[in-house]
Amino acid sequence: MAIDPKIQAAINKQINHEMTAAYNYLAMVVYFEQINLAGFAFWMRKQHEEELAHAAKLFQYLSDRGGKVELEAIPKPSSDFGSVADVFEAALKMEQANTASINAVYALAKDVNDYATLSHLQWFLDEQVEEEKTMEETLGLVRFAGDDKSALLTLNSQMANRPEEESETA
Ligand SMILES: [Fe+2]
Ligand SMILES: [Fe+2]
After folding, report:
1. What is the 3-state secondary structure (H, E, C) of the chain?
2. CA of 50 to the centre of ligand 1 (A)
3. Distance from the alpha carbon of residue 24 to the mean position of ligand 1, in angstroms
4. CATH 1.10.10.10 correct for 5-164
5. How far is the CA of 130 from the centre of ligand 2 (A)?
6. Where are the domains of the chain?
7. Can you give the pLDDT of all 170 residues of the chain as single tens digits?
């Protein structure tokens, strides 16, 4: 069944959201590298790669459905953050906005009884639960460390151990 033009447009918008998130996470890598927090930079680079993978998943799905991918412009991200906590606050907000965006595509697919799209988006809904949880936990730890530089450096070392995510390779 040919994909509904409204769903095609919504998926294209979502591809742009994922690419925008990827670019914003890359800007956070820049920030962490500037202040020599290599562990945080490494962790954020993984996050950047994850978002690229999300965009690629949607790209592939739309192609598989015979739809047309439209690549839109990605806004310039900011690397100006006041603190490590500011970065994770921004990251959490971005993930919350992305969850809302995926929910909106899901609602639209439900409206037009596009079961294949609903099924494909299931993975993204689960992923967003994970993403919000991760950002909330990390923000909590960073806030807990506060102005304690040695605590932040311990966190920095731990962030360098971020494993490959299984769901990304699935
Ligand atoms: Fe994503
Ligand atoms: Fe994400």
Report:
1. CCCCHHHHHHHHHHHHHHHHHHHHHHHHHHHHHHCCCHHHHHHHHHHHHHHHHHHHHHHHHHHHCCCCCCCCCCCCCCCCCCCHHHHHHHHHHHHHHHHHHHHHHHHHHHHCCCHHHHHHHHHHHHHHHHHHHHHHHHHHHHHHHCCCHHHHHHHHHHHCCCCCCHHHHC
2. 7
3. 12
4. no
5. 9
6. 5-164
7. 799 999 999 999 999 999 999 999 999 999 999 999 999 999 999 999 999 999 999 999 999 999 999 999 999 999 999 999 999 999 999 999 999 999 999 999 999 999 999 999 999 999 999 999 999 999 999 999 999 999 999 999 999 998 877 654 44
